[in-house]
Amino acid sequence: MRCASIIGRKNAGKTTLLVALVREFRRQGHRVATIKHAHHPADADTRGTDSWRHFTEGESDQTLLVSPTTRTLFERVPDRTGPRDLARRYFPKADLVLVEGFKSAGLPCVEVHRREIAEAPIHDPDDPGANLWIALMTDDADLRATCPVLRFQDTMWLHLLASMIRERAEVLG
User: Fold this and answer.
1) Helices (DSSP H) in the chain: which residue ranges?
2) Adjacent-strand bridge partners of 2
3) Is the torsion defined by CA of 10, 2, 130, 144 positive or negative?
4) Residue 91 pLDDT exceeds 90
5) Residue 51: pLDDT band by 50, 70, 90 thresholds?
6) Phi and psi torsions of 37, nearest 5°
């Protein structure tokens, strides 16, 4: 299993890029899983449903909601588990795990940078972790960096980025 992260500032387009990459990897025949990091508690269930009542009113430690086509696990755990351990625990059969966020996890990453969101990317060539950048995806025609820079207006950027991620993603044992 390989793991890489998509990072960037709020509203830069991280989710849009991740979704496009998942579709591309699936088109290529890979089993892909994703992990989304949130800075706030996530409510994924509807108030009043049986599963919501099991987990919220009953305060179960874990509730597994099973339908004919999906499973959703709700767990009460501290938010200290890193993306590597989460990937190993929940996605042992995945070929690739794409993580959105977890900037400080030290994973190989792709940064999404939009010039209307921020003047400069997060990438800092003087940072000790600068070598973890697989690429910078941007709409800024003038942006230069010490890592590869791909532009949304380029042709074939999605296929090229997918290849770069496959080559540079961290292998999790």
Assistant:
1) 14-27, 50-52, 83-90, 157-168
2) 96, 171
3) negative
4) yes
5) confident
6) -90, 130
Torsion of CA 37, 1, 149, 140, to 10 degrees: -30
Tokens 């009113």 appear where?
57
Q: Which neighbouring-strand residues pair with 139? A: none
In which region does residue 50 sit, left (phi positive, over 0), alpha (psi from -120 to 50) or beta (all else)? Answer: alpha
Residues near 102 by beta carbon (within 8 Å), at least 6 away in sequence: 5, 7, 35, 37, 82, 83
Element (H, E) at 64: strand 62-66
CB 104 within 8 A of CB 82: no
pLDDT for the residue numbered 146: 95
Q: What are the structure tokens assigned to 142, written together?
A: 């003038």
Q: 107, 5 in Cβ contact below 8 A? A: yes
Dump pLDDT digits (tens) for 93-142: 999 999 998 888 999 999 999 999 999 999 999 999 999 999 999 999 99
CA distances from 115 to 19, 76, 124 (A): 21, 38, 16
